[in-house]
Write a structure and sequence with these properties.
heterodimer; A: mainly alpha; globular; B: alpha/beta; Rossmann fold; Coagulation Factor XIII, Chain A, domain 1; six-stranded mixed beta sheet; 24% helix
């Protein structure tokens, strides 16, 4: 029989190694629950049928379309992107959207399941992970759109296109890690959810997704230290040309993502029950 | 918000949270509540709203961590609290069953095995593949409940959900609970339904303002609860532990404002049908001093036949001036189930005021339409004040009567039925 003990400051007494074991045991035991919650998120988008899936396309198309218009009318000048701009931008947006929509979904996952959390004891980690359902579907829809663009332009992507699921792993880890932390903070201070939304909009413009990385200026400097840049543009480069230019940046960014993920996972684990007191 | 951030911060960085200290504006939802539950036992938890019952259940479920103390549980815990948890309106009943089951902790194998049983229990029928947003509220409850009930934990926590659904459904639920009991599962039931407490639990915990006011048999706990609810109990000055007015008259004296000079004149214990295990409380401004059970000829009786008429006479003496007395009785089975109750207020009877030192006699003419068995009569006198009904002397289970058979009918009550049979067509 499983024996459970609840005590104040329970986790502290056990030590970090024990906590690690606990976390992975929990994740393993709740695989099916996570899958169910993921599926629920996914299906809810599908069931809204038409507009649901289209929305995944409309938003990025609108941003990209705006930039193309601005570029051709000379308002902005987008430096050379080594590939048809539409594909460059759409591919970048697809990766970015995966990050931003998953993050927003993760941040709000605990708050929206508030009444459930108050009444049933179930793995909240599964909630956060499962909330990425819609974003993942949207991502794949956008990739398909990019595929269509490739044929439209008559270009072939590199073999790396099949590696996309692997290439986005560091990005997803970063997203989940941040999602864990922010979901907890959002539960206590509800403004955080909105703040994140605003921040993400800024970040989208400040990260070279819709334009190529500038070579001079403050932005160039900042971008060198922006892990998101590497996590998005390196897979993009790989798909477009089959060659990676910023190897080391990607490696560091990936390592950072894994670190963030682990730290935030532990922080989440230590504090997840406190959420029920405030949600 | 600030406290929340502090708590989270401390937890995250592995600092001790010092949760046993109260910060400004905080209070203990539960204080010094200790008890144990054995495997296979059914425990009841009762108390006024806000006494901490739901908080206690949430602690047992692991939703809150205790800030002080320790909870040790052997086995898997399940709840019948939130039915329909995780239901998404756009998904079908079938899909929602899977989601709901996963949330309740079932594995895929378990759900596949129990799927048909769940569908059958919930009475959903053809609507299984319709989006849940088209379900009626009753169907939603039944479906959610069906899943919860099949999650088969070792320990089941039930919080007031038994009040939902139609009669047929309630019967199904109680049937399932009985099954659980037979399988040796432990159950903890939180409810305001005193009948359910009497029927299903073996031990009851009474909570009052976050403290443990008693761990007792269902009957005693319910009586104490009723006493608390009607304000007939004094709290001692030393914190929140409660002292009870016992059925010993001198204790009654000490706990309540003292009545004038008189010697205690309670003649009830001398009567043959007096029940020594009565439960008595009240402030003593008027007291029941004697009773009699008579037949319609005015003779005293100790036993009664089913369908007889008895006269239950109660003598009340005033110890202080009572302007608007209310006199009443209840009839209960030996398990404490209340069969009937009435009083002068509900029956619209005028009761003269009772002066100090004077007596009132009330007679209840009762048709004992009960089947053979043991029953208890409770009698009480209360006062109608501007703040409500104030109990002066309530004596629960004061009188024990035995009902003997008079015919061969059966059941709980004897509904004096005349049966007519004729051959051919029945003409009205």
């Amino acid at each position: 029989m499983i024996e459970t003990i609840y005590e104040p400051d329970n986790s502290l007494k056990k030590g970090y190694l024990c906590i690690f074991k606990e976390i992975f045991e929990e994740l393993r035991q709740n695989r099916w629950l996570t899958y169910q919650l993921f599926k629920r998120d996914l299906l809810s988008m599908y069931k809204q049928s038409f507009v649901g899936i289209l929305w995944a396309i409309i938003l990025p198309l609108a941003s990209v379309g705006t930039f193309i218009m601005l570029n051709s009318s000379g308002v902005f000048s987008i430096n050379d992107t080594h590939a048809p701009y539409a594909i460059y931008a759409m591919l970048g947006m697809a990766f970015w959207q995966l990050f931003s929509t998953s993050l927003v979904a993760g941040s709000n996952s605990l708050v929206s399941a508030g009444s459930m959390i108050l009444k049933i004891n179930f793995s909240k980690k599964s909630l956060v992970i499962g909330s990425t359902g819609k974003s993942v579907v949207s991502f794949f829809v956008q990739i398909i759109l990019v595929g269509i663009l490739f044929t439209w332009y008559g270009i072939a992507p590199s073999f790396a296109v099949f590696l996309i699921p692997v290439l986005v792993i560091p990005l997803m880890l970063l997203t989940l890690g941040l999602g864990f932390i922010i979901s907890i903070l959002n539960g206590i201070v509800r403004d955080i959810g909105n703040i994140i939304l605003v921040l993400l909009t800024f970040l989208m413009f400040l990260t070279p997704i819709l334009y190529a990385k500038p070579s001079t200026g403050i932005l160039a400097k900042v971008t060198t230290y922006n892990p998101l840049y590497y996590l998005i543009s390196v897979p993009r480069d790989l798909v477009l040309s089959g060659i990676i230019h910023e190897w080391e940046g990607f490696a560091v960014a990936s390592f950072l993502s894994v670190l963030v993920f682990l730290v935030c996972l532990i922080a989440f684990h230590l504090t997840e029950t406190r959420i029920a007191e405030r949600i | 918000m600030y406290y929340g951030m502090m708590d989270i911060g401390r937890n995250m960085f592995g600092l001790a949270s010092h949760s046993e200290r109260l910060r400004k504006g905080e209070f203990w939802a539960l204080d010094d509540v200790s008890f144990d539950v054995k495997k296979g036992e059914t425990l009841g938890i009762i108390g006024a709203n806000g006494s901490g019952k739901t908080t206690l259940l949430k602690l047992l479920n692991g939703i809150f961590w205790p800030d002080r103390g320790r909870i040790a549980i052997k086995g898997r815990v399940g709840v019948l609290i939130e039915v329909g948890a995780g239901f998404h309106p756009l998904l079908t009943g079938r899909e929602n069953i899977y989601i709901n089951s996963a949330i309740f902790g079932m594995t895929k194998k378990e759900v596949d095995k129990k799927f048909d049983a769940i569908v059958e229990f919930s009475d959903i029928g053809d609507f299984l593949d319709t989006p849940v947003k088209y379900y009626s509220s009753g169907m939603l409850v039944k479906l959610g409940f069906a899943v919860a009930v099949h999650s088969e934990p070792d320990i089941l926590l039930i919080d007031e959900v038994l009040a939902v659904g139609d009669i047929r459904f309630q019967v199904k639920c109680f049937g399932k609970m009985k099954e659980f009991k037979e399988k040796g599962k432990t159950m903890i039931l939180v409810t305001h339904d005193m009948g359910a407490i009497q029927k299903h639990t073996e031990r009851v915990i009474l909570l009052h303002r976050g403290s443990l006011a008693g761990v007792d048999t269902p009957k005693n706990a319910v009586n104490k609860y009723l006493a608390l609810m009607s304000g007939g109990v004094k709290e001692s000055e030393t914190g929140s532990k409660l002292t009870w007015a016992t059925d010993n008259d001198s204790e009654l004296e000490k706990a309540n404002p003292s009545p004038p000079n008189d010697i205690q004149e309670d003649l009830c214990p001398r009567r043959t049908n007096y029940n020594r295990n009565e439960f008595r409380y009240g402030n003593g401004f008027a007291r029941i001093v004697d009773f009699q059970i008579l037949n319609t000829q005015g003779e005293e009786v100790t036993s009664v036949r089913s369908r007889d008429i008895i006269l239950f006479r109660v003598k009340v003496k005033g110890y202080k001036f009572v302007e608007k007395p209310i006199l009443g009785i209840t009839v209960k089975t030996k398990d404490g189930i209340e069969l009937y109750g009435n009083n002068t207020l509900y029956a619209d009877i005028d009761v003269p005021s009772l002066k100090q030192g004077k007596e009132l006699l009330v007679e209840y003419r009762i048709h004992v339409n009960l089947q053979p068995g043991d029953f208890f009569l409770s009698a009480g006198v209360a006062e109608m004040t501007s703040e409500g009904i104030l109990p002066l002397d309530r004596r629960y289970d004061l009188v024990h009567i035995t009902v003997l058979p008079s015919d061969k009918s059966f059941g709980l009550v004897n509904l004096e039925t005349d049966i007519r049979v004729s051959s051919g067509e029945v003409t009205s």
